[in-house]
Specification:
Radius of gyration: 63 Å
Distance between the termini: 154 Å
Oligomer: single chain
Number of helices: 32
Shape: elongated
Number of strands: 33
């Protein structure tokens, strides 16, 4: 229960509604001024009354019942009737609830005069059918509000126009319905209408028309055209307002569009004309036409299009318009000149259209001043002539494309691509681009379009009409052509340059490969030297052991095998030097069959288990005069080449034979006629085409992947065969394998070489001379010393060149022979020989080394010009060489 003091009741006197405070018995304890004015009593009079005295009899009898309802609910709203002092009755809406007043529970009652509402309700009831038929079935909103703009009635159209249901709309506050500034304006209009209503002779049934805006449910504003008038009571006084609101939002937009278009027409720099379809007289021209022609609007309205188009007669102009009249064309565009009032002319482009406006046909014409464009066209034409002369006389290819289609190509393009300009212009841009290069061109084109960093010029391949692939360097730019972007490119044929660059790259790769081979050769030479030293020790001690062991000793067989193993290892070292191409070539008589037979095992390991190797030697001895290492190179290179031509499983066949080359064949192969040894290597691999066959002996030519071949194998074979007076024949076909036939002259006058046993060596090559032996490898020094002593020589040994010089200086007798290693610390063997010869002028020298020929040459040793023993040194070779040098 609310507490209310007497001092807080003054504020109630400012309310327009009647306020009573009564006891639960109905006695009036307080009334405000509005209650006194409404009922016609003074405050003192009302305070003497019971509520039942001011309610009409019907409603007075309900007071007790309503007080009981109030006790239960705490608040109650209902309608009643109050009886004024003059006995007239006014309908009221009453709201009551309990309060504490003067420390006692009481009731406060607020009464509002609803006479106007009742009058409206009465009017509505009287006209209900008519209202229902009209108000609820028209698209306009019909509404009734009291003089405070509070809605009393609204038609269903409010939902269609504003989006609210009737219930939602009737509950909306007035300040939520209209923009604030509009609401203020509406109150001012109401005040103005009240003032007008008090004027004499005023039309009491007048209607006020205004445009307002009201909020829709979605928050947007609807433009409404409102027709409103007062509703009057029986005395003629306004008690409400009735109105009809029409949604004119679309009309307002349309009007705004019309005004906008009119503004556009008036402000357009282009001339706009409207002329009658029958008379051809101008009915409208915009300001631009007036300004350009120099005529006034009134003057122009008396003229027709022919009056300002000196190039046309009326008949010609009518003929021009005929397709529009017949509906054949929707619009026509043509160029002409307009003549100004002062007689000057200017170039224009005319766009004419026939339209129907509410049954009336009119022509509209939009005129574009093309004076400047004509100047540009003339300049462009002149520029195009210059470009044509330049483009068609330059040796550089110039082309243009748009939407991936060629649209221009100069004569140089035909020379580059083989297509005529007409053929190219029927082709797609990508038709001439190599398939593998399309992706990079698209990527760079995309970057240019996005204005990202991309090379201005770039290289790619094109395919000409004959199918030939050519390299080009392209410079491109984007230009505007006929209003759309186009690509303008200049192209240089760089095919020859590319070939030179590829050849340069190839040569650089070959140089790098050669340098690698040089490094490998140096490594191989070092390895061979160390290996030869070890082999010399092994084979030497094996031979020394054999000298001191009885023939029937079981260990003798083991020593023989050790000696043979050392000899085979020496052959491996020899081949290692051959691989590095560091071994000095030295021709000797080689038994071809025996040489091949000794290599079969190694060759089988070289080609792998998936390839079968068949060896078919001729049944006779084939001897040729050739460096044995070089012959090994021929065979290895041919076998490796055959192996690489076989993908999976296959067959390689080696065959030997003798053939006779007659004069005709000799002339054809540039060799001497006679008997030749034939070495044939055949495979069933992939074979070669004719183009490959032309280049197989070219240095560095290879069909293998990068890193898998030097391109030197077959060229090496060719060089060795030619240097030995032979020739090569190759037969191959793609998919059917390859056969190499090597022809080397047979050695006719064969020499017989004696094979010496160790005991024979001791008898034949013995001596008593003094030998100075110099070797930095102590094990080899001791071994050779023992061999020489077994042969009867006096041996002065030194492991250091300076130690050898001291021995030479201090030895009283004659030193007959110097045996020295070539490569030693502190001093090489050549310099040592010179110094020792200065002390013992009659001394002879034998050089020994396990190094390759190129290392010896660097130390001024040419093995063909000096006495030279190559490590490992066998007992027989040492014995025969020493005896031969001393005897000569």
């Amino acid at each position: 229960m609310d507490k209310t003091s007497k001092n807080s009741l003054d504020v109630l006197n400012y309310l327009n509604d009647s306020v009573f405070i009564i006891t639960f018995e109905g006695n009036i304890l307080f009334v405000n001024k509005a209650a006194c004015e409404q009922l016609g009593y003074s405050q003192e009079e009302l305070l003497q009354k019971n509520l039942r005295e001011i309610d009409s009899p019907y409603y007075a009898q309900l007071i007790s019942e309503r007080i009981e309802q109030l006790r239960k609910r705490g608040m109650l709203v209902f309608e009643s009737e109050h009886v004024k002092k003059d006995k007239s009755i006014i309908p009221v809406e009453v709201s009551i609830h309990t309060i504490e007043y003067d420390a006692k529970p009481c009731i406060i009652s607020v009464s509002r005069d609803i006479t106007a509402q009742k009058q409206i309700q009465k009017t509505l009831r009287e006209n209900e059918e008519k209202w229902k038929a009209i108000a609820e079935n028209i698209s306009d909103i019909v509404w009734i509000v009291n003089l405070q703009f509070e809605p009393l009635y609204v038609s269903p159209a409010v939902e269609k126009v504003l989006g609210f249901t009737l219930e939602e709309y009737l509950q909306r506050k007035i300040e939520d319905r209209y923009p604030k500034e509009l609401l203020q304006k509406m109150y001012l209009i109401l005040v103005e209408e009240f003032k007008n209503d008090s004027k004499p002779d005023v039309d009491k049934s007048r209607t006020r028309i205004v445009e307002i805006q009201e909020y829709r449910k979605d928050g947007t504003l609807a433009d409404l055209s409102v027709h409103a008038k007062f509703l009057r009571d029986e005395t003629g006084n306004p008690y409400a307002i009735i109105g009809v609101s029409r949604d004119i939002t679309d009309q307002k937009k349309a009007l705004k569009e019309i005004q906008r278009y009119k503004l556009i027409f008036e402000q357009s720099l282009n001339e706009i004309y409207i002329f009658d379809a029958k008379t051809l007289r101008f009915s409208y021209v915009n300001q631009s036409a007036i300004n350009n022609l120099g005529y006034s609007l009134d003057e122009l309205k008396l003229m027709n299009p022919v009056d300002i188009k000196p190039e046309f007669t009326m008949q010609q102009f009518e003929t021009l318009l005929q397709p529009l009249r017949e509906g054949v064309e929707k619009n026509i565009i043509f160029e002409t000149v307009h003549k100004r009032k002062n007689g000057t002319t200017y170039n224009v482009e005319v766009h004419v259209q026939l339209i129907n406006v509410e049954g009336e046909e009119i022509f509209t014409a939009i005129i574009i001043d093309i004076t400047q464009r004509k100047k540009y066209e003339e300049q462009l034409k002149e520029s195009e002539e210059k470009f044509k002369i330049l483009a068609e006389s330059t040796p550089m290819t110039i082309m243009m494309y748009q939407d991936d289609k060629w649209i221009y190509a100069n004569p140089a393009a035909e020379a580059l691509l083989g297509y005529s300009e007409q053929e190219l212009c029927a082709m797609n841009f990508w038709d001439v681009v190599h398939p593998d290069d399309k992706a990079i061109i698209k990527e760079r084109g995309s970057k240019r379009q996005k204005r990202e960093d991309a090379p201005v010029g770039y290289e790619f391949r094109v395919i000409d009409k004959s199918g030939t692939v050519k390299w080009v360097l392209l410079y491109g730019a984007t230009v505007m052509y006929k209003g759309k972007p186009a690509g303008l490119i200049s192209v240089l044929d760089i095919t020859e340059r590319k070939k030179i660059e590829e050849e340069k790259t190839k040569l650089q790769e070959q140089l790098l490969q050669s340098q690698k081979m040089e490094a490998i050769g140096t490594l191989a030479g070092g390895v061979a030297h160390e290996f030869n030293n070890m082999l010399n020790i092994i084979s030497g001690h094996a031979e020394l052991a054999l000298l001191n062991i009885q023939p029937d000793n079981p260990a003798r067989g083991d020593l023989v095998q050790i000696k043979k193993a050392a000899q085979r290892s020496a052959e491996v070292t020899k081949k290692l030097l051959s691989f590095a191409r560091k071994q000095e070539e030295k021709s000797s008589l080689v038994n071809i069959n025996a040489a091949i037979d000794s290599m079969i095992g190694m060759l089988k390991r070289l080609i792998g288990e998936n390839i079968q190797l068949v060896w078919k030697p001729v049944k006779r001895e084939l001897s040729v005069n050739i460096d044995e290492v070089s012959f090994d190179q021929i065979l290895v290179n041919l076998i490796v080449n055959a192996r690489d031509a076989i993908k999976d499983h296959g067959l390689i066949t080696i065959t030997t034979d003798t053939v006779t080359i007659d004069d005709k064949e000799a002339l054809q192969h540039n060799v001497l006629p006679g008997e030749y040894a034939l070495i044939e290597v055949a495979d069933n691999g992939i074979g070669m085409d004719e183009e490959t066959l032309k280049h197989i002996f070219d240095p560095f030519f290879t069909t293998k992947e990068v890193g898998k071949g030097t391109g030197l194998g077959l060229s090496t074979v060719y060089g060795i065969v030619k240097n030995n007076g032979g020739c090569i024949d190759v037969q191959s076909e793609r998919g059917k394998g390859t056969t190499f036939k090597i022809y080397i002259p047979l050695f006719v006058e064969r020499r017989e070489y004696a094979q010496y046993h160790d005991d024979a060596v001791q008898k034949l090559f013995r001596g008593t001379e003094t030998i100075l032996l110099v070797e930095d490898e102590v094990s080899i020094l001791k071994m050779i010393k023992r061999m020489l002593e077994i042969l009867g020589y006096t041996v002065l040994d030194a492991s250091d060149p300076f130690e050898a010089l001291e021995i030479a200086k201090n030895y009283i007798g004659t030193i007959h022979l110097l045996i020295t290693d070539v490569i030693m610390p502190k001093m090489n063997g050549v310099d040592l020989s010179k110094l020792v010869s200065a002390i013992h002028p009659q001394i002879k020298t034998i050089y020994t080394s396990g190094y390759s020929a190129d290392v010896l040459l660097k130390n001024a040793i040419n093995t063909s010009d000096v006495n030279y023993l190559k490590k490992p040194v066998s007992f027989a070779t040492l014995a025969s060489t020493v005896r031969t040098v001393l005897d000569n």
